[in-house]
Amino acid sequence: MSMVLYLVSILILLTSVFVYLYIRQKQKLDSLITQNKSLVQSRDASLEYIEALWKSQQSIIRDEKLSSLNSLVAGVAHELNTPLGVSLTALSYIEDLMKTDIGSHLEEDASPMLKLAMDNLLKSINLVEKFTEISGGDVPEEPSPIEIREFFEFTLTRVKNVSAINILESIKYDFPSKLWINVSQMSLSIVLKNIIENALEYSLKSKSKSEVLISAKDSEGDLIISIKDNGEGISYTNLKSIYDPFYTTHRADKHYGLGLAISYNLLTRQHNGKLNCKSQLGEGTEFIISIPTAICSEPLKINVND
User: Fold this and answer.
1) Non-local CB neighbours of 288 within 8 Å, separated by 6+ positions
2) Strand ordering across the sheet containing 285-291
3) Vertex 122, ends 116 and 126: CA angle to 5°?
4) Model pTM?
5) Residue 162 and residue 224 in one domain
6) Among 141, 193, 219, 274, which one is most buried in terms of CB atoms within 10 A?
């Protein structure tokens, strides 16, 4: 009987030791799992911080590059503007002179060259105007209130190279009712015009039917505008350079590569806003514009009774 009790005691002791060791090992394992989770979270937070830091650094570098280029471009535009204007005036005078009896005998030989010179001068003047826009404008434009639908109706009147019918058929809107914004209207319309023109053109290149969705919303007082198309999309490599002046993948189509550079500069300099782009090849492109504290109340209408 004593032997049985002895063996039972030994069994109980061994069981206790096993349970104790199991509990200790489980505690260590749980502690390691907790530490591992903490390390993973710390790693993820570090990666997010590094990514945010990299994006911030790239934005600062881009702004510094554009700032240097802006000064150069503004100077070039100023220096070119006067001689181009004088040349255009002189050619216009010669053109008028050729229509008289004095210049009629020169018309056959000179007309083609005169047209060529006029066309190239007008092209140069157009480029100078774009250079001026790249610099963000000489004088900041004062913001004024306008209803969002009315503002986009005004903006679409500025869109070039696309028929009015195509605009009406291609563009869809998603706006809240009676959303009022307080913005520098002329400069923001240039920003939107350039992006909408790109969206319409590139979606027509890759699709039989162009589709552009424009939405706007109030985000805690900030204005958020999205312009999304169903076009060919932009590759990751090209996406990094789309705001660089003179960067274009369609130079054969006589594109200057200035539209998005102008939009970026006007938005950041005159509106303190941000311009982000999401795109993948074959899946279209979305530009997201954010302008802080741009939402406002509808202005009070004062009726003056006679």
Assistant:
1) 224, 225, 226, 275, 276, 277, 278
2) 171-174, 212-219, 222-229, 285-291, 274-279
3) 145
4) 0.61
5) yes
6) 193
- End position of a domain, from candidates 91, 106, 134: 134
Tokens of 219: 């985000």
Instruction: Give the residue among 173, 174, 193, 186 at the shortest CA–CA distance from 146.
Output: 186
Q: Are both 121 and 214 inside the same structural domain?
A: no
CATH number at residue 172: 3.30.565.10
**Could you state, in chain order, the average pLDDT of each consecutive group of 10 residues for the chain (306 residues)?**
65 70 76 78 76 70 61 62 72 71 59 71 71 59 89 84 59 88 91 89 70 92 93 86 78 72 86 91 91 88 57
| Inter-CA distances, 94 with 117, 121, 133, Å | 11, 14, 31
Backbone angles phi, psi at 287, to 5 degrees: -105, 135
My answer on whether 160 and 127 are in the same domain is no
In a shared domain, residues 248 and 268: yes
71 and 192 assigned to the same domain: no
- The amino acid sitting at 97 is L
The confidence score (pLDDT) of residue 227 equals 94
Is there a single domain that holds both residue 167 and residue 248? Answer: yes
Domain ranges, residue 274: 144-296
CA distances 182 to 154, 178, 221, 273, 289, Å, are 15, 13, 11, 13, 15
Confirm if 216 and 178 have CB atoms less than 8 A apart.
no
Q: Is residue 78 part of a domain?
A: yes
